[in-house]
Protein 1
Amino acid sequence: MIAFILAGGKGTRLKEITPENIPKPMVKIAGKPILQYQIEYLAKNNVKKVVASVGYGAGAIKKYFGDGNKFGLSITYSEEPQPLGTAGAFKHAEPLFGEAKDILILYGDIIFDIDFKRLINFHNSHSGLGTLLVHPNDHPDDSDLLEVDDASKILKFIPKPHPAGQMYQNLVNAGIYVLKPEIARFIKKGQKLDFGQDVFPALVGKGKDLYAYRSSEYVKDAGSPERYREVEKDIISGKVYRRNLINKQKAIFMDRDGVINEEVNYLHSPEQLELIESSAEAIKKINDSDYLGIVVTNQPVIARGLCSEKDIAEIHKKLDVRLGEKHAFLDRIYYCPHHPERGFEGENREYKIDCACRKPKTGMLRQAEHDFNIDKEKSFIIGDATADIMTGINANLKTILVRTGHAGKDKKYDCPPDFVFENLKEAVDFIIDDYERLSPDCCSEEKIR
């Protein structure tokens, strides 16, 4: 495998931070150029050949990095005669790729730290032309989005601006790709073309397979003063590295209905979903912390025949949009469509099974543990029903009951929670602001409030 880095950006929006005439990849952040973080990451992960696409400020980049030997790899340079866009630059550099079987593409203004083996294993397990790393973000309304199916195959691209009232998945192209070199056949030489705007949508339109690798890891561009300052803070604090999935992750698992959105008996359409006041604020606080925010929800409305899995997907698109409007997002939503009891009019018998995922069983949590390398000892589950609390007990998580939704009055299971709070916001405030500084006996009965 080789790496191709798009390092031709001017960094116009960073003029207030950096001296004039410095190309964006050479802007120093926490003491090092952005591009150096990427080069060091590649060397650490045994990617030994790099092709850097340069244009504006090429001389400064070449002078600093040279042939790459002092960084433990080799660097060759592809100099654009004029700006060609991300895909145009890729096509221009094609003669330098040699016999590479896969090409890792990085946008030169991003700071990231990801589990490289996970990404490559995902790519190798799918047979498409390429893999795009995608993630939710806190400003989906002004981001280029994409939509995927349950097999992670990309169905369509949704460029900004989005039509008013459109519901969408909060999945954003993060600027990291693993592509087969034959993708260059679909790019015309000498034309200014962008992967996200031009090439990828055209390939999907032609029925070519591209896949989305969903990641909760740290990938952010430092292309504006505000994002630059945020990224620098995260580098210094160690958050960039901590989010790499080689490290155990802390999670706050949440039930959906009655915790994030208002409880509606058998909610089965997007029109019925309304957020509980302050729940978006709580999830935003999770996003800004070292915790992942993950939903685990039973959705027996599918087994009962009230809606389809496609309808559930539309409900979750609305949830993504409503949270996004408040600059919040969920790292993942897991749901169980099953219900074990038969005999309901209109039921869907395909889903009438005794499964391993329906809470209080722990199948959804086990899947999340696999997907995110969860540290259960440092993780919580928040719910409004005793089934949520029983799930946490079965999975060895700390449990919190909230007084919204069912407020634990279902009494289906006899399982007192570790803590009780009025709503999701109070629970999240406690976890992030108070829990870790409390003594080990904080779970004793007198601490429950």
Protein 2
Amino acid sequence: MRVRFAPSPTGALHIGGARTALFNWLLARHAGGKLVLRIEDTDRERSTPENVEQILDALRWLELDWDEGPILQTERSERHREALGALLDGGHAYRSNATAEDVKSYKQRHGDERGFRGEPEGEGAVRLRVPEEGETVVHDAIRGETRFAHVHLDDPVIARADGSVLYNFAVAIDDLDAGITHVVRGEDHLSNTPKQLLVLEAARAVGLDRSEARPPSPLPLYAHLPLLHGPDGKKLSKRHGAASVQELRDAGYLPASVRNYLALLGWGAGDDTTVLSTEELIERFTLERVSRNPARFDETKLKWLDGVHIRELPTEELATRVGEFLDGAGGHPGAREDERFAGAVAISQEKIHTLADFWPLSGFLLDGPQDDPPAREKWLGEDGRAVLADARTALAEVVDFDEASIREALEGVLTRRAVKPRAVYQPLRVAVSGTPISPGIFESVALLGREETLRRIDGVLEARRV
């Protein structure tokens, strides 16, 4: 098996493209085949080296490796011209000066359903000669057979007058030369497939599929993936949240959970299993389980799944990933050098859903309390400060400043005051963190240590006195 992922470098790698890359990667790894990475950079205006690097960066972050490439399509222009010449010499293509108006006039005479047929003339664009009779059948592993009657197909333009080839011709020749056995791509490419198959048939007819190195190549099997929609059922776009792989990375998602979630967009594991390791995805993945129906990308579900993956990580690995995130997109470089960092990650693991959640939840452990005026107003009024003063006294008397001893001391305050836990814990939480949300209060106070905890409490009490 030989598959390919062939993005156009006209921007960042979007989520739909990432899913296509993943499905090709899983298919190749499941079958022990090869994945070819080809960069289809024939859009002269929008294809840039920066965009190529963006795509490679996204694939590396997703941890999707490739076996051959990256191959730039523009570097194969000589081969494309050679193949074009072979089709012209063999009578499977011809030069035509026909304009859009000529095509329109032809259809007015023969009917809109009749495919345009030109006559060889001049030195204009090159058109592929579509057989007059018969049909081209697309054998699709997901959608079944789709038939395209030749009578309805125009002779497609496959090269400009200057000899530079167009997309459908270049793709077909590149697939032929790479020995691609399965073409897995988005449903939006289905209309391109009969044109590419006609190019492949013509190329085989003139012997372009044969060489001393390999026997004739069979036509590839196609698989057109269902469209991606947002939660509202409309075509996926930026209004639904993250639209590219880089945005998912910068939002703090783990590559493993992104792979897990993207795999479930249009594919089923065969049971109700949702949380799957990459090894399980490789073992189970087949095209037969890909649905024809549009799949819905819901970032809320991705975030939930990311939280599951985070809780399954060894704490040391999670600390490494959080640290790397803070050094980059997280905007807090060097945070992991703090002696409390590993402990802060450990007590946050059960509460965070993405790497980006760590700092808003636990950054106060490393960088001081946050500023949340509504929280101060709600929990540090006269009653809250009185409770906080009692809690300070109890904490100051703790001998072993560990979680168990801190819990016992604070529960003593609850008993003496005959109040509910939040009446004590929330004023203390706001005093040490600045916000009403944090990891467990006992764990947080123990990690801060006696001196820092009392210093923060005193800062609140003294500020209120002034």
Protein 3
Amino acid sequence: MRRLALFFLPAVCWPAATPVSVDQLITMARSAPPEFAAEALVRIAALDKVEKNQKIELLEDAFRRAGEVQLPYKQRPSIVRIAGPAGVYNRAAAQGLDALSLRLKAVRAMLPLDGVRARDMFRRIPPLKLPRVTCEQFLVYDVDAFYDVLEHLARESFTAEEMQKGEPFGLIETYITAMTSAVQLPGAARLIAAANVNDRDFETLLAEFSRTMVKMTGDDRSFSYAAAGPQIHAVVQAAEKRKVPAAPLLEAYRLYIVTNMSGARCADDDLMVYEGTSFAFADPRGVDQQGPDPSVYFNGHLRMPPLQEIKEVEVTPFKLEGVATGLRSCDDSACKSIVERYNDLIFDSTHSAYPPSHRQTPEWQEQVGNLLAAMADWKPAAPAAAAEHFRDKSSLYSDLTNIQPDAAAKIKVLRAELEYVSKEKASAENRAQWFLPVNGIIGRVTLDPLGLGALSDDLRHTGDAVIALFAELESVSPRKPDQIMPLF
């Protein structure tokens, strides 16, 4: 227990010189690009020293600025078993710097302050218009948080009288009938399973969910990523508890599976099967993943008489077309050379891992210094490869930090990384990807303030207003370890 307490203690001890005032933080936040303004304002509004009326004002401001950000929705890689950019995309998505995620953060923070205002903000979120994902794309949309927040609103924002009148049902129904993409089904199904509505309204939601679901065709990438079997199972269990017939839902889900599996499918769907390990961090679908074949899950977990098992002939694809591109990176000779030098820090000439004691030797630290020098000189192979280069280089800095034997060695690498990312904002694919390594450095200082505290001044004085803002914000509103670890 003592060890656990010591692990969590640093999260509230971020080193600070003279912390800036709340008013100064607000001014810094409002002058930042919209992603960072919205994120910072939500965090500032959570501070105990901020009065309720000001919290509401800050959250309204954050909600407004969220509408100006670069990315409309969170996207995650659907294929995570191949070494490449999938891990970066996953970690960048975990920051929640897309427009929808930021709006939802503001709504969720508003709920305990003013439920009516929170519902009004939620209704002002533009309708979800998720583009179809082609087989050549490996990023799919992740809007689960939309339905999670909706469930909280339906449960917590209405008075007893309003709930008696069925107003939560009206709120939920609007968004069930508006679904257009397969990736919405898991979140919507969880919402229905947990809905605080009467049995009649629950049955209506099932019917509308079923009618909407069977219309979703022509996007195999999204279908394969979010086939929703376990979530449908949860709805069926909720229906059984209520003694509401689940057969119409299962009939619709059977039709949905057969229609999508017998149509045109991506030729690399087998790569989307989650097997418990990946080159990205933990697959966000986790234990809900149902396996490679939704029809097998249906037959084994959902089918009930008089529905027939789904036969193989019913789900044989009409044709296979297209595979995802951009799954791999570091294909040019300069990158491969850098990676080879990094591997030489870990493995000897027989490809056996060096013992930890080897990293304490002067020879090993000299190798690290030489690698840092080579990385400083490493440039993109071509202007068009700048974003890929930024992902590869910042990721390698992070990996190199992870293998350093002590805080002093880590600081040396992190300072080199900070210098790089503070000068290369224009190279990143978008602001969220640029901020990921910055966010990681700030997070490392939060987790180890005694060892890495010297970096706090570096962060404040890079000359970049966004980095300075979040360094100051961390000193007054430090995040918990579980909010930081997904960044690495």
Protein 4
Amino acid sequence: MPHGMSLPAMAAIRVPRVWAMLGHKAGDNSQVLALAEALGWPFEEKRFVYKPYELVTNLVLGVTLAGVVKEKSSDLGPPWPDLIISAGRRNEPICRWIQRQAAPQRVRLVHAGRPWAKIERFDLIVTTPQYRLPVRPNVLHNKTPLHRITSERLHRDAEVWEPRLADLPKPHIAVMIGGNSGPFSFDRAAAERLARQASEMARAQGGSLLVSTSARTPQAAIDAFTATLSAPAYVYRWSRGATDNPYFAFLGLADSVIVTGDSMSMLAEACATHKRVYIFDLGEGRYAMRESVAKAARRTPRSSAWWKGWEKARWNAFWYRQMMRFGPQRLSRDIRIVHRHLVESGLAVWLGDEFPEGKPLPTLQCVARAASRVRALFAEEHAGAAYVAFGDGSEAADSDPAFWRESA
């Protein structure tokens, strides 16, 4: 029973109706589900498929469902939600359409990541440093993305997969592979380099690799990776619609984790396991993710074979780098900011580096802090508390704007 409430008051309480808005990006969906699950309230998943020209309709019409393939998407109708949790540009017009249809009922809109509409149109934005959003009362600045890691989930999935991996020697090293991201490319050369480094690490420890690819992993790259492996390994190739994905099981079974540096979500999930996490740099030389490496390479003259490096960098990565240099910040993100935080805080090191001896690993608080801020939206209701809004003990810290900027 909430503190200070009588039984008659409890009888009047209802749990907020929550909709989790899901699209085609696994990272966005993971953050939405992480927050919905952390609240502890029942929630309904709403899944959407988008038309190829949705950007045009959304820009022209704003609040609209014109960009949605309705026959392949979830139905939208009353009873309307009290809370919508979303992520990604494509879902923003849908959320605002729901708010308009539900009026005069108040529908709170919580968005994870970077919004494309004006910040003041959201009740809360839960963001991370790579998006470089301003400090505002309705913006929660976490240092890492939201994640779905719980000890229960890891243990449950690990129990299912452990017998299948009984022949692989321990310790297990999980290798979580993403793909191309902005100015960085996971090409064949990067995949071969990852396979060599991961194999060397496994052989040095007398262990094996538990490898999981993702929806963004290029087929040619994973082919090159598997062909280069020289240590015992189980390789799971992601496929759409698969129902037996071992991602959480591998995180649960692993003694340490290697994550490609393109995926902030996978990095946060790996760090949330409280195991040693190694970041794989997709680039080399002047194209490295590590700024110290890239700056050092730029100070040296290009070799006569510099075109080889040019060919390895995809054209979209090249144009993204130009946009980061010359375009508005709103159109790009700088994931190196998150890398710096993970390394400087002791949550992770670059693959090839060593963890400091005797230094305990930090604990992520991003999910608890975000859930606390969402509950506060309902705790602000008028006296009589129309909604349940149980706290988790972190509200005092979350009320300090400096804490929003500096904490993990």
